[in-house]
Write the structure tokens for this entry.
Amino acid sequence: MHVDTFGTGAVSDDKILAAVLKVFSFKPADIVKQLNLLRPIYSKSTNYGHFGKDDADLTWEAVNKADALKKAVG
């Protein structure tokens, strides 16, 4: 994992990296579980792309970890 805010971060890149590693698990099984990826939802993302859609089914668009990251950077 690498974090580079190109000098624009309000906190150091090292603190952000430590927070990301504390809040997220990058083990493949954990990613599948956290994002609930075993559901057949992918046809929705094939039309017009998947970025920015306001759709609860696209779990990778969720920002539900923002508060945990802010607290971890604290």
User: Anything to note?
Assistant: The chain has four helices and no strands.
